[in-house]
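Problem: given the chain below (169 residues), write out its structure.
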Amino acid sequence: MEVRNIELRHLDFDRKMLHIVQGKGRKDRYVLLSEHLIRGLKTFIKVENPVQYLFNGNQNRNVEEIDQPDSGTPDFDSRYSQRGVQWVIKTIAKKAGITKEVHTHTLRHSFATHLLEDGVSIIMVQKLLGHERIESTMEYLHVCQLSDQQPHSPLDTVFALCRKNGNPN
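Solution.
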């Protein structure tokens, strides 16, 4: 689950990119960050003050204890657990009024589908998703309604619609 492995150093807000290290297929790649997501991440970082990983699963541990294995403190993984990530996604989906079952892969599928519908080339979507085989990416075409628009982050489209409908966030 790639979101568990995001480190602060992987975020490039100036280029609007996130470096995924050893992601799908054990390959590195870059993914787009929307303006709205960048604002949210900057706020999150300011409030939560993460040290290494963007999302820490155990907020009660001191980073100095982690770095000193001879302190008698057992090694542990400070990242969110897979179950924790799934819980967050299900909780947010419920708050958003989404009644169907939502999983982490649902987000990847939606991201790919929206990019293809917005006219992003299937080769670019393949690279963004980290698919080795184009056939894996082509599976997303069956649900797409394709257009000729310029590529951009699908989140910008979602938030533009929210603003249009009177929700400023």
